[in-house]
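Bug: token stream looks shifted between consecutive jobs. Job 1:
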Amino acid sequence: MATVILKKGEGRTLKAGGSWIYDNEIDRIEGDFEQGDIISVQDFDAYPMGVGFINTRSKITVRMLSRGIHDPKLIDDAYLAKRVRDAWEYRKKTVDTSSCRVIFGEADFLPGIVVDKFSDVLVVESLALGIDRLKGRILESLCSVLSEEGIRIRGIYERSDAPVRRKEGMSPVKGFIGEPFDTEVEIIENGIRFLVDVADGQKTGFFLDQKYNRLAIRSFCKGARVLDCFTHTGAFALNAAAAGALEVTGVDVSETAIAQAEKNARLNGFLLKEDKPHGMKAELNATDPGEEKSCGKGGDSAALSFKAADVFDLLPELEKKGEQYDVVILDPPAFTKSREATRKAAKGYREINYRGLKLVKDGGFLVTCSCSHFMPQALLEKTIQEAARSAHKRLRQVEFRTQSADHPILWSYGNMPGQQDNDENSYYLKFYIFQVRDAFS
């Protein structure tokens, strides 16, 4: 059984509540081990620090499983089952569990693994060697816990296809765990039906972290002209339409995503512009009898359309045409995947917010966010303010939000949300709603 001994003065992040030990913090490793084994950790003076799994091929050499347990043999099936049960009980108290993130890595004290539940399907992403070896036992425990609630999981799909696995000495993996099943899964979120492609959609198939942020935009979308940029599969756009927007345009560079957004719109009974004969009214509730209503009370359908285009190219074109919107939504992909690229990312956020602000009517609303883990909140706010100044707009903050509670933010001493985040901080999504006023109005 191996033991990792820290250098004197190292392990500061661990002692502050973190979960990772980097290679340069380790003085020596005593005993034999295989990569991915669970080992014990001691400070330089032999003080016990807990247990975690080891992989010397990764800069993150140890990922901690427990600070309170000091014998690796105690990380058994009962221990893993308790971690899984705790994660599920937390979700039951905080979110709608029909579709949610059930396990969120370090924030659920199971480092390196993410499990999303889409109705009766699980999608798992495993990013670390040690947790990969425990993956089957974790999923077995999760299915058992869910079955106690009367939830029968009909299939599990693995989306461990992120390139970061190579840093752990592992190849990307994608495919069924167990029997094959139909990988297009229907879910209902905020009363709206979506088809989730768990096999080929982005990440695990659908961005669950924005669930309640999408709901938050509805109050000011009624009767509005809405532009939803980086619409992906249409989630914000359909929430705007369901709220009673007069016109909604969703834009994304991916033609595949746009096709899925159009499919989702039709699934909810919306007629797209190209489908709708001139002067025809469409019912919002084109659902089967006895089925949950998708989009609130019936009425006239929004003028809804989706367009495959590069947002950075399209927004200047719309400005030249003199287009103006009551609501502009900016939900871009992460502009940076590393701390070193943060400055370049800030330029991207400044540009996209500047272009978006130029299209908002006086008194309208800008919805803008960043899912870049390495984009600190303070820098993002500075970037948005600079964009507003350049666009000659004043911003009145309506609301600040973050990721939904099924993606919990684990605080640690000296590494709080809003400060410069370290690599393992679970806080990443910053979401703002502003009312936009002309600077000289």
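Job 2, same session, no restart:
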Amino acid sequence: MQPAHSLLRPLIRAIGSLNLADDVGANGAGRSGRPARELGAGPADAALVLEDGSVYWGHGAGAVGVALGEICFNTSITGYQEILTDPSYAGQIITFTFPHIGNVGVNPEDVEATTPAARGCILRAPITSPANWRATQHLRSWLSANNLVAITGVDTRRLTRRIRDGGPPRGALIHSPGEAIDIEALRFMAERWPGLEGMDLAQEVMCRQSYRWDESRWSAGTGYGRQTQPRWHVVAIDYGAKRNILRCLAAAGCSVTVVPGDSTVEDVMRHEPDGVFLSNGPGDPAATGIYAVPTIRALLARRVPIFGICLGHQLLALALGGKTYKLPLGHRGANHPVEDLETGKVEITSQNHGFAVDRTQLPPGVVETHVSLFDRTNEGLRAELVPAFSVQYHPEASPGPQDSHHLFHRFTEMLQRARATAA
């Protein structure tokens, strides 16, 4: 995301406040470079322009500037701060289908990464003032401080139907108070943005040097704990790891060393791990797999226990000989039912991914363990000949509220078996 003055200055004419017009298409979006309607809070000063020329006018919030990315939607009704700071949203502009965003404010404890990777967000209603005892800042000021462009006043139901029916489009989001907005220039930019397919975004969000992690889960009154008596040492390969995943590993009894996603097998093994965790992350797994898959295959050859989540799940599948593909819509929300095929249980899961493992091309020796009850796509696998398993969803989140936390203990049980075998 770049500020408007550096990216669109030749294309935006300063004219003071914007005039209003009723040039509205059938979908309620303006077709020209003029705002389509009065939005109840003064002249429109922000717009979302899709690659097909659709325009959604609104009021800007957060940073002034332009953001380019894939327009997706998330159906969660809570956790907007965690969503906005999830590194897996790199390259994406998030449409929140829940209309009331901002209610609980923001605080420094609920971030999943220090620097948000999302490009911006799209909201229906004006940002709500915080009404929560843990809030330390208004969401509007937090967006500005983190250089995130936002737009309010958008018919997010209509936009979500557009995404649902036609797939996630490329788009340009602008907040430009006091200046005219050149719609054609923004459409030109959206059309030429390359899209997520074939894009290695893990490089944008992975750590650059290894570090140790011992912070564990949060408790009311005491905050986050510390793992002071770990039973196992785990190396987490960071493709865009969420902090709460690392906390869950620590809470399960692990001392965690985090290493960059492009680490070699020698980089990983010099830490002498009991097991390896493959983190979540953004972008196309086939692109990230160019450097990640050789490392994972070398770890599998050494029979190092492996647990993968989200992008880590997809990369493990590629390393085992499977295939991945881009989903028509993606899965983003906190209400996704997943069936564990080995137990028959159904878990309500939190998900955020635009790519999936092709369940029709799993090689021999790789067993599908979980499927989505929304669309029957793959949600988990395990290897029969080596100690490795993974899931597509996010077991560290709590939509169920704790339906999937047991997977971290499944991993430590695998570590215990490997230790006993080695002894």
